[in-house]
User: Which sequence fits this backbone?
């Protein structure tokens, strides 16, 4: 297989992955997850929904793990996690290598988190923001691109070095 053919196939695969958004929520974020899933689909993305599938009590760390693993394995491009405040989901997701999750309750932070910090999981608090603001935030997050400037690559490398130094592999 020629180098050009491999590049074209890789680009096609990367574009397919870019259209897959992984979404998960505990019981506190279940209703907002349903709303956002429909909005994201209408925006042209494929949604990989990892649960919860009801508002029965559930634990946000489990959904953080499921979303993080899909992002790590490149089954999805970016993730969205929803719990009551967004904080617990963010804390849990950030325990996974190569995951950069942040709570964003405004469009500026959602966009800037991707552009400057290569954020790959957006965390939202269903008990903090309403549906319309959540849609605006998700849109800003999904439309943003990492700026890939030297200063941002340097900072990302520093974060990755922290992960190498402090994350055990057992």
Assistant:
């Amino acid at each position: 297989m020629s180098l050009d053919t491999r590049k074209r196939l890789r680009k096609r695969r990367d574009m397919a992955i870019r259209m897959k958004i992984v979404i998960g929520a505990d019981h506190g974020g279940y209703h907002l997850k349903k709303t956002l899933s429909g909005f994201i689909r209408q925006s042209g993305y494929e949604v990989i929904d990892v649960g919860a599938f009801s508002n029965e009590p559930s634990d946000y760390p489990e959904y953080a793990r499921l979303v993080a693993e899909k992002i790590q394995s490149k089954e999805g491009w970016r993730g969205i996690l929803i719990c009551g405040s967004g904080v617990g989901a963010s804390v849990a997701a950030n325990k996974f290598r190569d995951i950069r999750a942040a709570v964003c309750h405004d469009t500026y932070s959602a966009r800037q988190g991707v552009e400057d910090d290569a954020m790959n999981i957006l965390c939202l608090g269903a008990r903090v923001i309403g549906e319309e603001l959540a849609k605006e935030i998700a849109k800003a997050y999904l439309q943003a691109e990492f700026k890939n400037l030297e200063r941002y690559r340097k900072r990302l490398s520093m974060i990755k070095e922290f992960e190498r130094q402090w994350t055990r592999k057992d």
Q: What stands out?
A: The beta strands are 20-25, 46-49, 78-83, 101-103, 121-125.
